[in-house]
Design goal:
The complex is a heterodimer.
Chain A (H helix, E strand, L loop, with lengths): L3 E4 L2 E4 L5 E7 L5 E8 L3 E10 L2 E4 L6 E7 L2 E6 L8 E8 L6 E3 L3 E5 L1
Chain B lengths: L3 E4 L2 E5 L4 E7 L6 E7 L6 E7 L4 E4 L2 E6 L4 E6 L8 E7 L7 E2 L3 E6 L1
Parallel strand pairs in B: 2-11
Antiparallel strand pairs in B: 1-3, 3-8, 4-5, 4-9, 6-7, 7-8, 9-10, 9-11
Classes of the chains: A mainly beta, B mainly beta.
Protein backbone atom coordinates (compact mmCIF):
# COMPACT_ATOMS: atom_id res chain seq x y z
CA UNK A 1 0.00 0.00 0.00
CA UNK A 2 3.10 2.28 -0.25
CA UNK A 3 2.46 3.45 3.32
CA UNK A 4 -0.54 5.63 2.46
CA UNK A 5 -3.35 6.16 4.96
CA UNK A 6 -6.46 8.22 4.35
CA UNK A 7 -8.72 9.48 7.11
CA UNK A 8 -11.55 9.40 7.68
CA UNK A 9 -12.62 6.41 5.57
CA UNK A 10 -16.27 7.46 5.61
CA UNK A 11 -17.91 10.78 6.41
CA UNK A 12 -21.39 12.22 6.19
CA UNK A 13 -21.63 15.99 6.50
CA UNK A 14 -24.18 18.71 5.97
CA UNK A 15 -24.25 21.21 3.15
CA UNK A 16 -22.31 24.35 4.01
CA UNK A 17 -20.01 22.80 6.59
CA UNK A 18 -16.22 22.67 6.20
CA UNK A 19 -14.60 19.26 5.75
CA UNK A 20 -10.94 18.25 5.81
CA UNK A 21 -9.64 14.94 4.49
CA UNK A 22 -6.19 13.76 5.42
CA UNK A 23 -3.65 11.77 3.46
CA UNK A 24 -0.67 10.50 5.40
CA UNK A 25 2.37 8.72 3.99
CA UNK A 26 5.21 7.12 5.91
CA UNK A 27 7.95 7.07 3.27
CA UNK A 28 8.66 10.78 2.58
CA UNK A 29 7.70 10.68 -1.10
CA UNK A 30 7.72 14.02 -2.81
CA UNK A 31 4.71 13.84 -5.14
CA UNK A 32 1.18 13.61 -3.73
CA UNK A 33 -2.22 13.91 -5.42
CA UNK A 34 -5.91 14.16 -4.63
CA UNK A 35 -8.45 12.63 -7.03
CA UNK A 36 -12.20 12.28 -6.89
CA UNK A 37 -14.03 9.32 -8.42
CA UNK A 38 -17.60 9.54 -9.65
CA UNK A 39 -19.62 7.06 -11.75
CA UNK A 40 -19.15 7.77 -15.43
CA UNK A 41 -16.26 10.19 -14.84
CA UNK A 42 -13.37 7.98 -13.85
CA UNK A 43 -10.74 9.59 -11.66
CA UNK A 44 -10.32 13.34 -11.87
CA UNK A 45 -7.40 15.30 -10.45
CA UNK A 46 -8.28 17.94 -7.84
CA UNK A 47 -4.90 19.21 -6.59
CA UNK A 48 -1.36 17.96 -6.42
CA UNK A 49 1.87 18.72 -4.59
CA UNK A 50 5.53 18.57 -5.50
CA UNK A 51 6.67 19.04 -1.90
CA UNK A 52 6.17 21.07 1.26
CA UNK A 53 4.18 24.25 0.52
CA UNK A 54 4.36 23.53 -3.22
CA UNK A 55 0.90 22.77 -4.59
CA UNK A 56 -0.98 23.27 -7.83
CA UNK A 57 -4.50 22.97 -9.20
CA UNK A 58 -5.83 20.05 -11.16
CA UNK A 59 -8.78 19.61 -13.48
CA UNK A 60 -11.57 20.01 -10.89
CA UNK A 61 -10.11 22.29 -8.20
CA UNK A 62 -13.07 24.69 -7.73
CA UNK A 63 -14.43 24.47 -4.18
CA UNK A 64 -11.33 22.71 -2.85
CA UNK A 65 -8.12 23.84 -1.21
CA UNK A 66 -5.06 21.89 -0.08
CA UNK A 67 -2.17 22.28 2.27
CA UNK A 68 1.13 20.49 2.71
CA UNK A 69 3.05 21.79 5.70
CA UNK A 70 4.87 18.49 6.26
CA UNK A 71 6.16 16.01 3.68
CA UNK A 72 4.05 13.21 5.11
CA UNK A 73 0.66 14.95 5.17
CA UNK A 74 -1.46 16.32 2.32
CA UNK A 75 -4.77 17.81 3.43
CA UNK A 76 -7.79 18.42 1.22
CA UNK A 77 -10.35 20.96 2.49
CA UNK A 78 -13.86 21.61 1.28
CA UNK A 79 -14.47 25.10 2.64
CA UNK A 80 -18.26 24.85 2.35
CA UNK A 81 -19.40 21.40 1.28
CA UNK A 82 -22.03 21.05 -1.45
CA UNK A 83 -24.00 18.00 -2.60
CA UNK A 84 -22.00 17.96 -5.85
CA UNK A 85 -18.93 17.13 -3.77
CA UNK A 86 -20.41 13.81 -2.69
CA UNK A 87 -17.81 11.41 -4.05
CA UNK A 88 -15.08 8.94 -3.28
CA UNK A 89 -11.78 10.74 -2.74
CA UNK A 90 -8.47 9.03 -3.39
CA UNK A 91 -5.06 10.22 -2.37
CA UNK A 92 -2.10 9.02 -4.42
CA UNK A 93 1.67 9.26 -4.30
CA UNK A 94 4.36 8.85 -6.93
CA UNK A 95 7.81 7.76 -5.89
CA UNK A 96 9.48 9.18 -9.00
CA UNK A 97 8.00 11.40 -11.67
CA UNK A 98 6.81 9.58 -14.78
CA UNK A 99 6.01 6.44 -12.80
CA UNK A 100 2.94 4.77 -11.41
CA UNK A 101 0.68 6.36 -8.86
CA UNK A 102 -0.04 4.36 -5.69
CA UNK A 103 -3.48 5.00 -4.26
CA UNK A 104 -4.76 5.15 -0.71
CA UNK A 105 -7.86 3.22 0.35
CA UNK A 106 -10.20 6.10 -0.43
CA UNK A 107 -12.61 8.25 1.59
CA UNK A 108 -16.32 8.07 0.88
CA UNK A 109 -17.81 11.52 1.51
CA UNK A 110 -21.54 12.14 1.50
CA UNK A 111 -22.86 15.71 1.66
CA UNK A 112 -26.54 15.88 2.68
CA UNK B 1 -4.44 19.89 -20.88
CA UNK B 2 -4.48 16.19 -21.58
CA UNK B 3 -7.71 14.45 -22.60
CA UNK B 4 -8.08 10.66 -22.52
CA UNK B 5 -10.94 8.83 -24.22
CA UNK B 6 -11.61 5.16 -23.34
CA UNK B 7 -13.81 2.60 -25.13
CA UNK B 8 -15.92 0.63 -24.60
CA UNK B 9 -17.55 1.62 -21.33
CA UNK B 10 -18.78 -1.96 -20.82
CA UNK B 11 -17.31 -5.14 -22.30
CA UNK B 12 -18.75 -8.61 -21.82
CA UNK B 13 -16.73 -11.62 -22.98
CA UNK B 14 -16.95 -15.37 -22.54
CA UNK B 15 -14.49 -16.94 -20.14
CA UNK B 16 -11.41 -17.99 -22.07
CA UNK B 17 -11.88 -15.40 -24.81
CA UNK B 18 -9.78 -12.27 -25.27
CA UNK B 19 -10.70 -8.72 -24.25
CA UNK B 20 -9.41 -5.48 -25.78
CA UNK B 21 -9.85 -2.00 -24.33
CA UNK B 22 -8.78 1.06 -26.31
CA UNK B 23 -7.73 4.57 -25.30
CA UNK B 24 -6.74 7.71 -27.16
CA UNK B 25 -4.90 10.71 -25.77
CA UNK B 26 -4.49 14.29 -26.99
CA UNK B 27 -1.20 15.65 -25.60
CA UNK B 28 1.84 14.58 -27.59
CA UNK B 29 4.01 15.46 -24.55
CA UNK B 30 2.55 12.53 -22.59
CA UNK B 31 5.14 9.81 -22.23
CA UNK B 32 3.77 7.43 -19.61
CA UNK B 33 0.68 5.23 -20.06
CA UNK B 34 -0.44 3.02 -17.15
CA UNK B 35 -3.45 0.71 -16.86
CA UNK B 36 -5.26 0.24 -13.56
CA UNK B 37 -7.68 -2.42 -12.37
CA UNK B 38 -10.25 -1.55 -9.73
CA UNK B 39 -12.38 -4.16 -8.00
CA UNK B 40 -15.61 -3.13 -6.33
CA UNK B 41 -14.96 -1.07 -3.20
CA UNK B 42 -11.19 -1.23 -3.60
CA UNK B 43 -8.49 1.19 -4.66
CA UNK B 44 -7.18 1.26 -8.27
CA UNK B 45 -4.06 -0.86 -8.70
CA UNK B 46 -1.55 -0.85 -11.52
CA UNK B 47 -1.57 -3.91 -13.75
CA UNK B 48 0.77 -2.83 -16.55
CA UNK B 49 2.33 0.33 -17.95
CA UNK B 50 4.22 1.44 -21.04
CA UNK B 51 6.46 4.36 -21.88
CA UNK B 52 6.53 6.30 -25.12
CA UNK B 53 9.82 4.77 -26.29
CA UNK B 54 8.27 1.27 -26.34
CA UNK B 55 5.64 -0.07 -28.74
CA UNK B 56 4.48 -3.15 -26.84
CA UNK B 57 4.83 -4.76 -23.43
CA UNK B 58 3.61 -8.11 -22.16
CA UNK B 59 3.14 -9.63 -18.73
CA UNK B 60 1.71 -13.16 -18.85
CA UNK B 61 -1.91 -12.82 -20.10
CA UNK B 62 -1.81 -9.02 -20.27
CA UNK B 63 -0.29 -6.86 -22.98
CA UNK B 64 -0.34 -3.19 -23.85
CA UNK B 65 0.39 -1.63 -27.24
CA UNK B 66 1.15 2.01 -27.98
CA UNK B 67 0.92 3.91 -31.26
CA UNK B 68 2.49 7.33 -30.67
CA UNK B 69 1.73 8.61 -34.15
CA UNK B 70 -1.97 7.92 -33.80
CA UNK B 71 -1.95 8.74 -30.06
CA UNK B 72 -3.68 5.56 -29.00
CA UNK B 73 -2.90 2.64 -26.74
CA UNK B 74 -4.70 -0.59 -25.97
CA UNK B 75 -4.95 -3.24 -23.26
CA UNK B 76 -5.20 -6.87 -24.32
CA UNK B 77 -6.20 -9.63 -21.92
CA UNK B 78 -6.02 -13.18 -23.24
CA UNK B 79 -7.62 -16.34 -21.84
CA UNK B 80 -9.90 -14.31 -19.60
CA UNK B 81 -10.82 -15.69 -16.19
CA UNK B 82 -13.60 -14.82 -13.71
CA UNK B 83 -11.12 -12.89 -11.55
CA UNK B 84 -10.51 -10.53 -14.47
CA UNK B 85 -13.97 -9.05 -13.91
CA UNK B 86 -13.41 -5.46 -12.72
CA UNK B 87 -13.29 -1.86 -13.92
CA UNK B 88 -10.18 -0.99 -15.93
CA UNK B 89 -8.81 2.53 -16.34
CA UNK B 90 -6.23 3.80 -18.79
CA UNK B 91 -4.25 6.94 -18.02
CA UNK B 92 -1.72 9.23 -19.65
CA UNK B 93 0.78 11.72 -18.31
CA UNK B 94 4.22 13.27 -18.42
CA UNK B 95 6.45 14.71 -15.76
CA UNK B 96 5.26 15.05 -12.17
CA UNK B 97 1.82 16.45 -12.95
CA UNK B 98 -1.05 14.16 -12.15
CA UNK B 99 -2.13 11.42 -14.52
CA UNK B 100 -5.24 11.97 -16.65
CA UNK B 101 -7.57 8.98 -16.56
CA UNK B 102 -10.10 7.60 -18.97
CA UNK B 103 -13.65 7.05 -17.72
CA UNK B 104 -13.21 3.34 -17.26
CA UNK B 105 -14.33 0.05 -18.80
CA UNK B 106 -16.46 -2.41 -16.84
CA UNK B 107 -15.21 -5.84 -17.94
CA UNK B 108 -17.63 -8.70 -17.36
CA UNK B 109 -16.44 -12.29 -17.77
CA UNK B 110 -19.35 -14.61 -18.59
CA UNK B 111 -18.98 -18.23 -17.37
Amino acid sequence: DAGITQSPRHKVTETGTPVTLRCHQTENHRYMYWYRQDPGHGLRLIHYSYGVKDTDKGEVSDGYSVSRSKTEDFLLTLESATSSQTSVYFCAIRIIRDTEAFFGQGTRLTVV
Amino acid sequence: GENVEQHPSTLSVQEGDSAVIKCTYSDSASNYFPWYKQELGKRPQLIIDIRSNVGEKKDQRIAVTLNKTAKHFSLHITETQPEDSAVYFCAAGGGADGLTFGKGTHLIIQP
